[in-house]
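Hi R.,

Here's the chain you asked about this morning:
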Amino acid sequence: MCSFIANAGERDKNFWLDTEFKSNGDPEETLTTMLFGPHFTTKLYHLSPHVDFELAMALKRPSSMFLHDLSKPEAKLSKERYGSVERVYVICEEDQVISRAFQRWMIENYGLKEVKELKGSDHMPMFSVPQQLCDCLLELAQH
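And the predicted structure, written out as tokens:
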């Protein structure tokens, strides 16, 4: 996620639109949060039912960017822990947040067992293509 954030900022200064970023806490241990605004949230839900977008807007809260955790990957992302889990990647075909190029980069660099693609899905496939996502997850679970 950290490299995704950096890549997005470099490729387009307007990428984050109305997202608010804040730093809180101890100056020695800065906690950075983000809160998606309505314009950015529209990019996440552009193919999802409008009612799901409205619910997301009503329930949204600031989220950690986990920069502190990601700065020490050896603690959580060791080969014995994270590396021991088989990973798959599900491409959301119409994702307006994670570019196709970055999705391909993650696929090529993360040692995946399998790659699936959800046609007609925005960034939130559980809303835009719920049955297709369910079928995909069931198929992956049966392997």
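The radius of gyration is 17 Å.

Let me know if you need anything else.
M.
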